[in-house]
Design goal:
Arc Repressor Mutant, subunit A; about 260 residues; elongated; four-stranded mixed β-sheet; Serine Threonine Protein Phosphatase 5, Tetratricopeptide repeat; alpha+beta
Length: about 260
Amino acid sequence: MLRTSRRTPPATLRYAPLTIQTFGAFCCSLGSHHITTTQWRSQRACELFLLLITSDGYSLSREYISDQLWPDHLGDAAANNLRVVLHRMRSALEGGPHAPTIVQATHHTISLTLPAGSTVDSDEFRHAIAAARRCADDRTALPHLRRACDAYNGHYLANLPLAEWAIPLRAKYAADYAAASTRIGHILLGLNLHTELTERMWRALDIDPSIDAANDLLMQSYAATGNHDLVQRAAPDTPVSLANALLRAQSHLPRRIYQPVISS
């Protein structure tokens, strides 16, 4: 993989920015223009774009791209496929009469140069997660955690069939989101910011019901604010999950609160 610094064209060109959403349903827009499935023309063209967006510097060698997109093809066959897919990707991104030059291709590499002001939600998420991890103090980490959790709107490329290279990325992003949600929940609980805590934990469970800590934090928050009836609403559905949640949360819940949950 060729590593380069991320680049943007001169600001004086003032092209419309790209907005790229990879969490939840994939969506790519150039200004107000949504790039449709028809305009991508093939799943491979879209996949090439996503592979480049995921890379350092938005730049990769042709050889690496061919290995990822056509692992069973060799030599001329893979090179011919890449030429076709590259043309389709360029047409989707640069098809308008006043579209910017986004795609750069040499004999060895293919790169993207995004217009100034472009955003990629996975970049925002990764940078915020990294910034939060560098913060030993919870109050300093809190704004970064908020930014990360706000950027994560669902599993990575949830509406697309996952290529092999994208499978570990989806798992990593999901794990990072679960960890960030748990950390922000504990921070908010300690700061008595219960309204934000409950909103974020319910959102986390909507995105990924397997985040057990979200249930625990909801139960603790409702108990701390006297909303005892809501403790049961926040309790997991299955007996095993409920037992584990209560075991983790018992030290924070008065017995009079969790006893009715056990008995229900």
